[in-house]
């Protein structure tokens, strides 16, 4: 069983930055892709970013391209989402998930509880 825990969310002004962290247990972490998804109130969960097990391949959604960066440190079983130039429309609960490299959330087997990000205008 893999446990996934996110942290780093909070309240920030428009234009500000936050760094989300995701720590996952399990011996297969370094071979697993990790994705970030978000869900705003009244909206469906959407893809934000994904990184391969080795960290050599990554992708971010068009809506956050140039502002968000995903990275990982397998020695710490951690994945990070650096979010810069935040906008009010980035407000959502952000989820970390471990699974197979994909932008579709159906490809992920283990999910964290989420961390709230609120961007004020």
What report would you give on this structure?
By secondary structure, this protein is mainly β. The chain is built from no helices and 11 strands. The chain has strands spanning about 5, 10-15, 20-25, 35-40, 45-50, 60, 70-75, 80-85, 90-100, 110, 115-120. The strands form 2 sheets. Strands 2, 4, 5, 6, 9, 10 and 11 form a 7-stranded mixed sheet that branches. The protein has a 4-stranded antiparallel sheet with strand order 1-3-8-7, with no helix packed on it. Strand 7 (about 70-75) and strand 8 form a beta hairpin.
| Category from helices, strands and their pairing | mainly beta
Biggest sheet overview: 7 strands, mixed
Strand content: over 45%
The rough form would be described as globular
Give the low-pLDDT segments.
none
State the main characteristics.
121 residues; mainly beta; four-stranded antiparallel β-sheet
Task: Provide a brief overview of the structure.
The chain is mainly β and 121 residues long. The chain is 0% helix and 50% strand.
Write the layout of secondary structure elements.
Elements: E1 4-7, E2 10-13, E3 18-24, E4 33-39, E5 46-51, E6 58-60, E7 68-73, E8 78-83, E9 92-99, E10 108-111, E11 115-120
Parallel strand pairs: 2-11
Antiparallel strand pairs: 1-3, 3-8, 4-5, 4-9, 5-6, 7-8, 9-10, 9-11
